[in-house]
Fold this protein.
Amino acid sequence: MTHPLSGKRAFVTGGSRGIGAAIVRRLAADGATVAFTYVSAPDRAAALEAELEGRAFALRADSADADALRAAVAQGAMRLGGLDILVNNAGVLVHDDIAAIGLDRFDHILAVNVRAVFVGTQAALAHLGEGGRIVNIGSIAGERALFPGNSVYSMTKGAVAAFTRGLARDVAQRGITANNVQPGPTDTEITNAETQAMIAPMMPIGRLGQGAEVAALVAWLCTKEAAFVNGSSLTVDGGFAA
């Protein structure tokens, strides 16, 4: 069996559940050793570690805490002996009337969805070298605000897309690529049955996406084959925003 990421060392933020856990699983299956962060699900983080049997390990770090995130990146790089891949996945999903979002909550959303992408990237660049890969997890909401209540979330994911474009130029001379993966509606624990029932009829393929389908694109972007893909935002949404 071919392992396209054999020997690669990866760091994934928010990797204990949902799309993040799917990314950790796929990178490990493709041969990488993965450090991943979690903040509020220690049991799930431990279960994922056990499932992957030495191919991944968890580090507690709240992505809203810049110092904690920097420390986690440094610790992960130390244990792995360096880094080849960074996946900035941690995020806060927001669907609320703009009038209901207070400034403290707004600042927290930006801290996780935007600032942590910058902080994690800056910290990882001290360890990434030639052939390095940075993959940010954005959202189709960064391009299209499809529902009322998405304004703040859309703003943060638009910022991730813009940052990725600039970052691609910043790191290209170091032989590193940076890309943005934009999932559409995905079947995770934060998408309840009522929401799924509402969205599924809007999907051209008649269903929500699976975390593994998003993870497959992330993993491919980390391979040598994807070396010419740089600064791109790639949508994985089953045609939802088509």
Remarks:
- Residues 168 and 231 are 5 Å apart (CA to CA).
